[in-house]
Amino acid sequence: MKKSVIIIIAIVSVLGIWAFTKGSGFYNTSIELRENATAQWGNVESSYQRRADLIPNIVNTAKGYAEFEQETLTKVIEARSKATSITIDPTNITPEKMAQFQKVQENMTGALSRLLAVFERYPDLKANENFKELINELERTENRINVERNRFNEIAKPYNKHLQVFPNNFFNSFIGNFEQMAYFEAKEGSEDAPDVDFDLGK
Question: What does the pLDDT average to over 104-133?
Fold first, then answer.
């Protein structure tokens, strides 16, 4: 009887040490991976903010050349306002919140593309050095957005995988309560930055 108790105590002790070691390792690794992903999310937001910062200058420069295109300009300004009003807590990037964020950003891209298409018809505007530089900067920013989005997906993936594998999923339900992060899901054709080439050599 005494020997059985000792064996049971020994087994429980071993299991306790194993659970503590694995649990601590799971928690610490989860924190590290989540911090990596949230830091990269900051880079994504920074890229989108850079685009938002460029838009007022593009609109103001264009106004003097196309006073009657007010509807197009208004739609761009409204889309920018909506896009900058949607924020996501980087520690809680759910599929629903990601879809909402992507929708307003895609609307911004669409409005901006229409604006650029309209001003294709204004040779004086296309020759404006300030406007040309703004468009070049916009193109670089769009490319940066794509790069940072892809990097976020790459960094979020090991974090999500870490939470799902056994026994991490078991520990998470008891001590972690970490949430998986949603990925950016690119629409067909969105791997390329919007076409902002005015063919200025014409």
Answer: 87
